[in-house]
Each structure stands twice: as structure tokens, then as C-alpha cells.
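User: Second chain of the day. Same drill as before.
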Amino acid sequence: MAGLLGNIAGGVLVASGQLMWGGIIAMITAPLDALDGTMARLRNESSRYGSFVDSVSDRYSEFALYAGLLVYFIQTGTWQDALLVFLASMGSILVSYIRAKAESLNYLAKIGLFTRVERYFVLIPGLIFGFPRISLWILSILNNFTALQRIFYVRKQAKTNGEIIRNREE
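Assistant: Same format as last time:
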């Protein structure tokens, strides 16, 4: 939960125009998010519900930074900047959703170029060093590319299993 609170604080700082400080807070607290599940497993305190809460808090954590950027760009940027935030966050959410939905249907979907760690490696430096638009362009493209990779990977599994059959009129 420390990671979630840190990213919310980072998002608030970004929204107020303090991109560098928002990025620094996110950089400091991002590893804490990764440690939550690991620490629970090491203490034999992991559970399915704990895993669920961890996954949901990860989505909120990431979205807090996108929300901060959206507010920032609505106040200072153009509609194109806001659109970049939308596209980057949409791709990010879809990457996670596609995996969760695929796994609920017993498909594998833990593949793709841009996972949460990679997204942070692009977003946080963009905030700290003052090039959020470049980071958002990269994220908009690669998040959605990763979502498509997962869709096609699941489709391939479904096709291999004989679940996709073309209907032909004869």
C-alpha cells in the first residue's frame, strides 16, 4: 500500500505542475509496490485475495500518475497532449485486463514487450527530466502494441485448440 500512496502523492504533484518531484516520489515508491507480494509470500501470508488486492492497487498506482498528467496537460497543454495520456493509459489498462481475462479462460497471456516495469522505466524519467510528451508517445505506441501482442497470442492458442472455426457457406 505504500507504493499506492506514493503514486497518488506523485500524481497530485504532477497535476500541480511539479513533474520532477512527482517522478521522484514515484521512483522511490515504485519498488515498494513490487515488494508487497514478495514480502507476503516470504512470510507465508500470501492469499488469493491478497494477490487480487495487490493487482488492483497496482492498477490504481499506475493510473494515479496518468491522472496527474491528464490534469496537468488539461491545464497547460493541448488536447493532443490529453489524447496521448488517454492512449497511454488505455493501453496500460488493456495490457493488464487482457492478461487477467485470458488467464480466467485458461489461456496464457504473460507475454509482450511492455509490462508494468517497462512502463515505469519510460514514464518516470520523462517526469523527472521534463520530457513527458516523449514518454507518452512511447507509452501510447508500445502499451497498445503489447495489448495487441497478447490478443494475437490468445487467438493463436484458441486456434490451436480448435476453438476458432471459420463458418463457410457451401
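The chain is about 80% helix and 0% strand.

User: Great, on to the next one.
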